[in-house]
Write a structure and sequence with these properties.
Length: about 350
């Protein structure tokens, strides 16, 4: 309990607000589970906290690694690992016990998250079910056909922090974690596969589907603007549960701390994994039929989730079984050392050098 309290204080979470969000009169919103673990996910009404039910084995892993997790989070303020705020257990009148963890909601933002990806760096079974895709769908590795270009110093900082984080998870014998990536498109009309089939509108020789009325009609498709952050400027919106340093943009403002200015929307504080402006480029398909290069302005939200799976005997058996049937490089169940190496290589391809 003291570690949980200390973590909440570290992220400036008021104890009364925490209790009201989790235990207040407002009903928690149940979310569909994106994984196969059988866990149930809930979201607090204020969108600040994600609640996930845990299996007893996961609780055991968390309690074992919690002191070292606490030291890691305290030491690395820019860590991208899931932020845990409380581990709780309740006993229902039936006598059944429920264990759950309270985490920070990575997608609590002023902006609309148009695409959500759960990325492991493996390929076997890593595609979403063939159902209608909407903004709440959890897409996977094989569904991602974009790479993202960041300001060079931001890319370096991101890769360095992810390497530090996965090395920590490797030392804890953890594998099967994911990069949760949320993408906000500044011009959501480009999300053609989201839209119902309609008459294409030619613009300068390109074919772009007109924006559906249900989308954000007030969003500007202008480029992303970085503005210097003044020391006395309190107008920028700070990312929730963020305690890391602001990012500096050396290429445009002379190594100054910057904010992201979105016309007609907000002025956002840019930090590692929070409110990060980027350029998304479409990766052409194998047939090479694309006639033009698709480039979009996006804002990214990302972090490392699902960090409670040990490489235990069950996973070792799964690895042995699937390795006989499939290429061992493509499966998720691999030892933590190989998993972390493959994960890092995948991240480098996802965020190529600019």
């Amino acid at each position: 309990p003291m570690l949980g309290r200390n973590l909440r204080e570290m992220f400036k979470i008021d104890a009364a607000d925490y209790m009201m969000s989790i235990c207040g009169n407002d009903t928690l919103r149940e979310l569909s589970s994106p994984g196969k673990s059988g866990s149930v996910f809930f979201l607090s009404q204020d969108d600040r906290f994600m609640i996930k039910t845990l299996r007893k084995a996961e609780v055991k892993v968390l309690k074992r690694m919690l002191p070292r997790y606490h030291r890691h989070v305290r030491r690395y303020e820019n860590t991208l690992i899931t932020k845990f705020f409380g581990l709780h257990r309740i006993k229902a009148s039936s006598g059944q016990r429920f264990r759950f963890i309270v985490m920070g909601n990575m997608f609590c933002t002023e902006l609309r998250i148009h695409r959500r990806f759960d990325l492991k760096g493996s390929s076997l079974g890593r595609s979403a079910d063939k159902v209608e895709i909407d903004e709440n769908s959890i897409l996977k590795d094989l569904d991602l056909n974009y790479c993202f270009y960041l300001e060079p110093s931001w890319r370096d900082a991101l890769l360095q922090q992810i390497e530090i984080d996965v090395k920590f998870l490797e030392s804890e014998n953890i594998m099967d974690y994911s990069l949760l990536l949320g993408v906000h498109y500044r011009a959501p009309q480009h999300l053609r596969f989201l839209m119902p089939q309609s008459q294409p509108v030619p613009i300068d020789g390109l074919v772009i589907v007109a924006e559906d009325e249900s989308m954000e009609n007030d969003i500007s498709a202008q480029g992303l603007v970085l503005v210097p952050h003044g020391s006395d400027d309190c107008s920028s919106i700070v990312g929730l549960h963020s305690r890391g340093s602001r990012l500096r943009a050396s290429s445009s403002t002379g190594d100054e701390e910057v904010d992201l200015l979105l016309p007609g929307t907000a002025r956002l504080q840019i930090q590692l994994g929070v409110n990060m402006p980027a350029r998304a480029e479409h990766i052409p398909g194998e047939n090479g039929a694309e006639m033009f290069h698709e480039v979009y302005d996006v804002v990214l939200y990302l972090g490392i989730i699902d960090i409670l799976q040990e490489y235990n005997m069950k996973k070792k058996i799964e690895h042995a079984y699937k390795s006989v049937q499939f290429d061992s490089v493509s499966i998720s169940a691999v030892d933590p050392s190989f998993y972390s190496q493959r994960f890092l290589e995948f991240i480098k391809k996802l965020f190529p050098a600019n």
